[in-house]
């Protein structure tokens, strides 16, 4: 059985040479969130361990400040909860 060859994923933050991930910059954080606004794992985003940890902290801070929702209702899925 042949294995699929996947393209190498690169860390978006290392390539952009970003020094700091701001929790208020939601557009940058959306890259690491799923459609249900869960934090995506490293194997899917391609982030390095260092940047994944920083992204997680920034997302958790943004959730605490109510910039990103914690939970999205399964029955009433909204396309963009930021416009509510």
TrEMBL record:
<dbReference type="InterPro" id="IPR001648">
    <property type="entry name" value="Ribosomal_bS18"/>
</dbReference>
<dbReference type="GO" id="GO:0070181">
    <property type="term" value="F:small ribosomal subunit rRNA binding"/>
</dbReference>
<comment type="similarity">
    <text>Belongs to the bacterial ribosomal protein bS18 family.</text>
</comment>
<keyword id="KW-0699">rRNA-binding</keyword>
<keyword id="KW-0689">Ribosomal protein</keyword>
<keyword id="KW-0694">RNA-binding</keyword>
<dbReference type="InterPro" id="IPR018275">
    <property type="entry name" value="Ribosomal_bS18_CS"/>
</dbReference>
<dbReference type="InterPro" id="IPR036870">
    <property type="entry name" value="Ribosomal_bS18_sf"/>
</dbReference>
<dbReference type="GO" id="GO:0006412">
    <property type="term" value="P:translation"/>
</dbReference>
<comment type="function">
    <text>Binds as a heterodimer with protein bS6 to the central domain of the 16S rRNA, where it helps stabilize the platform of the 30S subunit.</text>
</comment>
<dbReference type="GO" id="GO:0003735">
    <property type="term" value="F:structural constituent of ribosome"/>
</dbReference>
<comment type="subunit">
    <text>Part of the 30S ribosomal subunit. Forms a tight heterodimer with protein bS6.</text>
</comment>
<dbReference type="GO" id="GO:0022627">
    <property type="term" value="C:cytosolic small ribosomal subunit"/>
</dbReference>
<dbReference type="Pfam" id="PF01084">
    <property type="entry name" value="Ribosomal_S18"/>
</dbReference>
<protein>
    <recommendedName>
        <fullName>Small ribosomal subunit protein bS18</fullName>
    </recommendedName>
</protein>
<keyword id="KW-0687">Ribonucleoprotein</keyword>
């Amino acid at each position: 059985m042949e294995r699929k060859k996947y393209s190498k994923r690169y860390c978006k933050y290392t390539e952009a040479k970003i020094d700091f991930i701001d929790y208020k910059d939601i557009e940058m954080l959306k890259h690491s969130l799923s459609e249900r606004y869960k934090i995506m794992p490293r194997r899917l985003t391609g982030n390095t361990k260092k940047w994944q940890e920083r992204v997680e902290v920034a997302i958790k801070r943004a959730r605490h400040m109510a910039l990103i929702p914690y939970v999205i209702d399964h029955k009433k899925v909204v396309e963009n909860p930021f416009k509510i």
